Structure formats: C-alpha cells, structure tokens
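FW: tagging you since you asked about this chain on Friday. Here's the raw sequence from the shared folder, copied in full. Didn't touch anything.
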Amino acid sequence: MNGNSTRKVTVEAGGRGVVAHVGLHALGAFADRLDLGDCLSARVPWTGERAPGHDRGKVLTHTMLMLAGGGEACTDIEALRCQDVLFGSVPSAPTVYRTIRNELTPPVVADLHDSFAEVRSKVWARSAATTGDTPVVLDIDASLVTIHSENKQGTAATYKGGFGFHPMFCFADGTGEALAAILRPGNAGANTVSDHLTVLDTAIDQLPDPVAAGHRRGDDPELVRRGVIVRADSAGCTRGFVTGCRARNIGFAVAARSNTSVHTAISRVAYDSDAWTAALTQAGEPRSGASVCEVTDHIDLGDWPDGTRLIIRREPLHPGAQRSLFPSLNYRFWGHYTDQPGDPVDLDVIMRAHAHVENHIARLKDAGLERFPFANHDANAAWLQIVCWSADLVRWFQLLCCDGALAIAAPKTMRWRFWHAPARVVTRARRHIVRIADGWPWADEIVAAHQHINALT
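HL: got it, structure written out here
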C-alpha cells in the first residue's frame, strides 16, 4: 500500500507557454463581445493631463474577472498579470486601488450604472430567460457583512451583536442579477421605507426601456408595457413601501408580520378544514402536510392599497421552525400580502420562491462581498458595485454561453471546473492557440462556450 497523495517531483520557476485561467479568458472574451470595457471607459473621466496608461474600462473589467476567479482584494489582480498572452496588459494592484479609491466617485459610479444598463439591455434581448410578456419579478433583501476593523467609514454595530455593513439588494429573479445595491451601516434598519424604495428605483433604472416603461414614480399606468412585481420579506411589510410600489405601477408580495388583526383573521379559519386547499411545491406537486387559505374577507385592509389580499399557509410544525403568525402546537402559520390576481395556492408558490434571494446573496458573498478593502466609504460603495457587476457578468455568461449544470453553477463550482482550467499556449501562423490540459473533464464545455461567444451578434 502507498498512502502518499502526491508524486515526488522537483519544482522550479521559469515555466513557459503555460496558463492557468483559460475559463476566465472566456469570460473576458465574452465581456469584450458585449463591448463592456468600452462602455465603462467612456464614463470614467481622466484625472490627469493625458490618457491613463490603462484604459479604465479595461481596469474595471479585469477587476471583475479577478473577483469571478475568487479574488477579494486589489492585490489579487497580480494572479492575472503574469498571463499577458491571455489578458494583455493587466493593471497593477496600485492602479486598481487608485482607480477605485480616487476616480470612482459617487457621480462616476452613477454614470457607470447607466452604461451597465445599456449592456444589460443587449443581454436581455438575447436571453430566453428575459424575453416574453410575463411579469418581471424583483426580490429585495438585506444581509449583514462582518467587518473586522473599526477604521472603515460607515460601519456600525449590528442587531446580531456583530460589526460591519448592512447592504440592501434588489435581484432579478429570472436571472439572478444584482440590479441594485446600496451600502448601509450595520445598524441600518431592515424595514426602512426610503432604502427599499431607493433600491427599487435603482433596479428599475437597470431594466431595459420596454420593461422599465411606466414603472417610475408618478408614471401614467398607460405607459406600462410589461408588468413588474417586487417581493420582500417582512422588512418590506410597511404601508409606505407598498404604497410606493403602487405609485410606480409595480405589484407587490410582502411577508406578513404578526399582529392582532392577522391573529384574529387566522383564528377564524385555523381549524376549518373546508377553508384550506393543499399547497404545491415549486415543481407543481402536492406539498406534504401543507395547505393554503385566503383570509382577505376576515381582516380590515382599509389602510392598504386597493386590491390587497392576505394569503396564509400552514404546515406541520417542525423543530427549529421560525416564529408563527398564530400559536399552535400542530402547525406553523405563515402569510403574505399581495395585490396580484390569481389562485391563492399559485400565489403562495410564487411568494415562496422569494427564497431564491438567499442563493443570490450567497453567490455575492462567495465572490468579493465578504471583504471591503478600503477605509473610505465611497470607495467601498464603488467596490460593492463592482462585486455586483462581476456577479452579473458571470450570470450573463452562464445564461448565454453555458449549458447543463454550468448554466446554474455556484461560484466555487465555476472556479474548480471552468475559470481556472490549465492549458498550454502554442504559436502557429502568428496565432496563439490555447490547448486545454489533456484529461480536463470540462474541456468540451470551455470549447463550446467559446463557440457561443463567437456566435453572438
């Protein structure tokens, strides 16, 4: 028997013709195909007398590639600099730092948002996940990010006893894109109406014009060409937020909070078996032991927008279940308010899909969100946007260039299987040819992705 996990080799520096980030090159080629760098560079003004040595759009795109590959600080860009045959002239860590710290001011970041929206429109026009006439579903949620330093501006103690930031996000459910993000201190309220509406308005501005039409504050409902629905947990269960949604011609679905009126409404149907209908899973199959009931007729919703409904779900009580809307030894009761038409069972299925937001936030935390490398608040706010843009670039790549499991793979899976694939570079007829290492299990997927990129028009 031999318990050794490696072969004995002699390790030396000086290897040539070898590259280690072939998949990231595909992601960069995809970004170039979308003209992402050119769109971004046009929005970053020069701060000196002459053009910078590194185009700022390229600096931002390389930073996105670094984050997609698992980097979490400006110094991680150095891993790409030694592979100029794939990535050309990559900026140094100080250049990345100075660009974000000194040049990405709030007005510049706002302009970059506009440019990113233009690129997003191109992607949405090409993807089957975003075409059609069904309503676009947005999800709002906030998440705590622990910071192990008191020297960063804008940090504060959190309600969980930690310290750091409490950013709020708005995602597109159909694609998982982080349409909007705002950096907030750790003690920021979870149910702050102004923050919810700010992140919602920013997300609407990121949608293509045919989708965003009619969904800005005060717009005429006749301008609406495609419906938009926003979902939120109980932090969004405020009259100010849902009224703001109605003012933007946006539908809503927000988790209900426990109060006397909700408690009373549930008590009238809690044990009436005829009032409940079997709940369904996301796949449309019966959900074991769970059922749904609408209690709109049993509660006063006069302070809510016209057409608001209250849908309640009950399911068998299980260990570790979160707080219920109604005390029971047998069931856990949960509900949501919505202004959408349709069968209560179907609306319950749609609302439960709000749980996707946890996966979206986890993806950001696995790709740069867990570490804010600057002391300056505006620089960290810019970093947050770049993290979101990088995650969106990856999602676009997965939607348009990947098939099967890779189309929905998590960041860790993409790094192990795709981004960091090794290869050898050979030159033939003045062309560089990248040959993926023999036996790499996902070589065919990488080749296929390049074929998809070449087919993009």
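FW: The radius of gyration is 25 Å.
HL: agreed, and Residues 134-362 form a domain with the Transposase Inhibitor Protein From Tn5; Chain A, domain 1 fold (CATH 3.90.350).
FW: great, closing this out.
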